[in-house]
Amino acid sequence: MNPEPFLQLDRVIHEKGRLAIMSLLAASPSLLFTEVRDTLRMTDGNATAHLRTLLEAGYISVTKSLEGGRASTTYALTATGRRAFAHYVDLLGQIVAQTRPPDA
User: Fold this and answer.
1) How open is the CA angle 93-10-44, to the nearest 5 degrees?
2) CA distance 74 to 56
3) What is the DSSP string of 15-69?
4) Which secondary structure element, helix H or strand E, spans residue 87, and what is its range?
5) In this predicted structure, what is the pLDDT of residue 1?
6) Res 27: pLDDT
7) Does residue 102 surpass a pLDDT of 90?
8) Which of 91, 10, 22, 7 lies closest to 54, judged by CA?
9) Which of the listed residues 9, 16, 42, 47 has the most CB atoms within 10 Å of its CB?
């Protein structure tokens, strides 16, 4: 087995909560904080911590606005985040391919 794909996995994305957020945002143009939190069944604090880590890595962007007098916070993948996530998924594909029997 070639260990290289394992060694290249992005530790920022690899954590379960952040991988879930990246996957969710990859499937949507943008999502409200409450949509991320509720879809992934996270607490406010847990979602905030993971979103902050992804923001600091430059993988997501945040937009804050007022809609109908209520504050709204929206997150989206950045181009850097989209590339990092695609690379991460490619590495996972390589890892899975190594586990298949030769005649499968």
Assistant:
1) 110
2) 16
3) SHHHHHHHHHHHTSS-EEHHHHHHHTT--HHHHHHHHHHHHHTTSEEEEEEEETT
4) helix 79-99
5) 81
6) 97
7) no
8) 22
9) 47
Return the bridge partners of 67, or none. Answer: 70
pTM: 0.91
Look up residue 34 and give its amino acid: T
Q: Output the six-digit token pair for 83.
A: 């590339």
List, for residues 19-77, the tens digit of each pLDDT value: 999 999 999 999 999 999 999 999 999 999 999 999 999 999 999 999 888 999 999 99
**CA 24, CA 29: separation in Å to the nearest integer?**
10
Instruction: Name the one residue in this structure whose structure tokens are 């992804």.
Output: 54
Which amino acid is located at 47 in the chain?
A
- Residue 100 tokens read as 């298949």
CB 40 within 8 Å of CB 21: yes
DSSP character at residue 102: T
